[in-house]
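Recap from last week: sequence in, structure out.
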Amino acid sequence: MKLLALTKNAYKESVRQPIFSLLLIISAFLIYVSPFLAFFTFGEEAKMIKDMGLATITVCGILLALFGSSTVIAKELEKQTASTILTKPLSRSQFILGKFLGIIGSVLLAILVLALIFFLTLYQMEKKMDFSIFPAIFLIYFQVVVITAISVGISTRTGMVPNIILSSFIFILGHLSNYLVNFLEGKSFLISLGGKIAYLVIPNLENFNVSGAIAVGTPVPLDYLLYAASYGVIYTVIALLGAIVLFQGKEIR
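Predicted structure tokens:
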């Protein structure tokens, strides 16, 4: 019950933030007007619209996750209100887990809203129901969950701005990890070893990127969806355990 109450509170905090509504409105607008922006692509309209829509949902979800973790954790620690919560019979691990679940719950709401708008936009353009986007949106959510877990851990030790910068940097590296490890292969032993360690530590976010296949109409196999989702769950659990360890060692006044 304590965990559920904390999750609900974190969810409400995230949704009530002005940035939540602002990002949702901007993203919804960009998705809705994407057919007009793709008007001069000469036969590539559907591909461009799908690319734009999926990219918009991804960026919106990531930003909401980063601002959410910074707001419901980092700011709470800065204002020293976390100590009030932890004086109650609530463990630090429950605190981290509750905040995490509340944040990803609010992001799920936003992604579902944008997915519906995206689906209706495609229907309006193509005059047929296109369910092919949902596997991509499914994996986008798992990608956001992974970044949220990382951001939650960082937010236990840093403020809002460093958290957003570090988490964004990890997000970028996560999409470049395949390229970087191939680029560093064959370099000096230490450089190559460092690249392999970074590849193992930094999440490989390209596992969740199927927008290219969706845009050209290539179906995503179910076994791949299960593989990517499993990878996301495993990495999220590890990241949350790291966040709990970081929070356990933090002095709260």
